[in-house]
Design a protein that fits this description.
With 279 residues, this protein is α/β, with parallel strands linked by helices. The chain has two domains: 15-92, lambda repressor-like DNA-binding domains (434 Repressor (Amino-terminal Domain)), CATH 1.10.260; 94-278, 2-Layer Sandwich (Endonuclease, Chain A). Helices cover 49% and strands 13% of the residues. It has helices spanning 22-36, 41-48, 52-59, 67-77, 81-93, 96-107, 126-134, 142-152, 170-174, 180-194, 245-260, 265-278, and strands at residues 3-4, 7-8, 110-115, 163-169, 199-204, 218-222, 229-232, 240-242. It has a six-stranded mixed β-sheet, sandwiched between helices. InterPro entries: Cro/C1-type_HTH (IPR001387), DUF5753 (IPR043917), Lambda_DNA-bd_dom_sf (IPR010982).
Length: 279
């Protein structure tokens, strides 16, 4: 196959619509600058220490960039564009329900959450959140994922924060995430949050046996002047928003029944302190 300045002359690559998404524009920018220089994917790959197949996926918008690759692309192509936009591309790849969850949390008057396995996201420390993300399918995007989770928490520090009521399982308190130091700091964070007037935290003790909240985590968002919504957790970014009245009613009952078997706040604080001191 004939070549011109390193670019294959044969079947042209599929066109990229730069207006279809941020990822598509990012990829279109790579291809445009690469072809302007007459470089093949292999030649650009040699300059940025990436395989041609990886770059091809970036150009087609089907692969998420990271900071290191973005900086290498800028160095090779003489721009600052990629370092300035890679995080926006990653944020765009967050699931639509996850983005909607954050937006609705900022509008909520009351947030009620039931989490049987992990600390609720709005109460996680940065290190705890990082350990959770690193254990899952989004570990290559850990910096953006953690930054987004920390951004979610700004709702609790604004001038008029929502009322937050969280039911956790004792298992979530005892599961050591990220190592002893990280977990101890996480428990200290919970103790500090419990001192805030708009935060209520209660724990279901292990000896409570079965209760409906064991099935999985969820949060219910109540608003002023509009119908409530809920977000139901799911593995690997499969969580989803719920607006069906019947489903919301079922989640309401699940939350109430779970809270009914939880310890009072004073006993909850004592349990958290005891677990922290045992670490």
């Amino acid at each position: 196959m004939a070549k011109t300045k390193g670019v294959n002359v044969g079947r042209p690559p599929n066109p990229i619509d730069p207006n279809s998404s941020l990822a598509a524009r990012f990829g279109w920018k790579i291809r445009t600058l690469r072809e302007q220089r007459g470089w093949s994917l292999e030649e650009l790959g040699n300059k940025v220490a990436c395989s041609a197949s990886y770059l091809s996926r970036l150009e087609r918008g089907v692969k998420s960039p990271d900071e290191a690759v973005a900086r290498q692309l800028d160095a090779a192509l003489g721009t600052t564009y990629f370092s300035e936009h890679w995080q926006l591309v990653l944020r765009e790849r967050l699931s639509q329900p996850g983005r909607a969850q954050t937006e609705h949390e900022f509008e909520a008057a009351v947030i009620r959450a039931c989490m049987p396995n992990l600390i609720f996201g709005l109460l996680q420390t940065e290190e705890y959140a990082r350990a959770i993300v690193m254990s899952g399918p989004f570990r290559n995007n850990v910096d953006v994922m953690v930054a987004e989770r920390m951004r979610r928490q700004e709702v609790l520090t604004r001038e008029h924060p929502p009322r937050l009521v969280v039911v956790l399982d004792e298992v979530a308190l005892r599961r050591v995430v990220g190592g002893v130091d990280v977990h101890r700091a996480q428990l200290e964070r919970l103790e500090a949050e419990m001192n805030k007037p708009h935060v209520t935290l209660q724990v279901v003790p292990a000896d409570a046996g079965e209760y409906p909240g064991l099935v999985g985590g969820f949060e219910i968002l109540s608003f002023t002047g509009k119908a409530p919504l809920a977000y139901v957790e799911g593995p690997g970014g499969t969580g989803h928003m719920v607006d069906s009245p019947s489903h919301l009613a079922a989640l309401d009952e699940t939350f109430d029944l779970s809270r009914a078997v939880a310890l009072p706040t004073k006993a909850t604080a004592q349990m958290i302190r005891q677990i922290r001191e045992e670490l």
